[in-house]
Amino acid sequence: xxxxxxxxxxxxxxxxxxxxxxxxxxxxxxxxxxxxxxxxxxxxxxxxxxxxxxxxxxxxxxxxxxxxxxxxxxxxxxxxxxxxxxxxxxxxxxxxxxxxxxxxxxxxxxxxxxxxxxxxxxxxxxxxxxxxxxxxxxxxxxxxxxxxxxxxxxxxxxxxxxxxxxxxxxxxxxxxxxxxxxxxxxxxxxxxxxxxxxxxxxxxxxxxxxxxxxxxxxxxxxxxxxxxxxxxxxxxxxxxxxxxxxxxxxxxxxxxxxxxxxxxxxxxxxxxxxxxxxxxxxxxxxxxxxxxxxxxxxxxxxxxxxxxxxxxxxxxxxxxxxxxxxxxxxxxxxxxxxxxxxx
Length: 343
Hints:
- The protein has a single domain (2-328), classed as Rossmann fold (3-Layer(aba) Sandwich).
- The protein has helices spanning 100-108, 133-146, 159-170, 198-206, 210-218, 229-240, 244-255, 257-260, 286-296, 312-315, 317-328, and strands spanning 2-6, 57-63, 66-75, 85-89, 112-116, 152-157, 175-181, 273-279, 300-305.
- Helix 1 (100-108) packs across helix 11, helix 4 (198-206) packs across helix 7 and helix 5 packs antiparallel against helix 6.
- The protein is of the alpha/beta class and 343 residues long.
């Protein structure tokens, strides 16, 4: 159940070869344990050994004097195109692959769907640079320009919700709709805790082990399913990689954004029609905080999905996807368009 409160063409560069090890995702659920299963081995920090649901292309960029590549999927409508594009922005502990079901739901409704891995995440490059929401948003804008996309709906999950908010407030003429799925950063962290030096935060990231990883991933879900095990296997596999020290620093630098680059002050400046949606069991204060977000954005609607956690697109897609599609097919000015195949 949910409760509602009112307040063409694909162009790719250098398709990734990717060694698809399907066995990585074929695992059985295991009870929480301090010891990793013996077959959990290293995983590439750029996920070449993790299958993606659609072909991955790359956009070359230069950031802080470093040549990097931004990975993305650009998926055409599965049926009759509706002329609209949706950009899906992943969370901090995830990557574009986990949007597979959402991509299918949106392309079936006629949308073109673009799914980037932000720099420092997924299959994209992992430079050690000063990360910020502004740079992530600008990189996403450059990707849309490269693909010839003038306007798009922006949907972000978790950390991606912070980025989606910054994108919408920075590029109002590009953003038709804004979807915030269990976003984080709903309070100014600087008022909640003191600043933690990057070196100290890095040591904490570097020390991640199997038990802490499993605990961190399991807390995202109300009901655990075997298919979620793949995220534990990937995160633990990163710590076994020879590149883990570098990636640990990249993750640390991106995690500092939550403190150093709050988005709570962006909300009043968002012009796009907005859907704030999420599982109501994403922490005890999520419903209250999500309501505050919806009240702060001028044209926003709040939808809470009952008894669902942090990842409703994985845990309750049958509840999230129809509501998301309905919203993205609506008139961006506030009304509702009658479109073929909307229901």
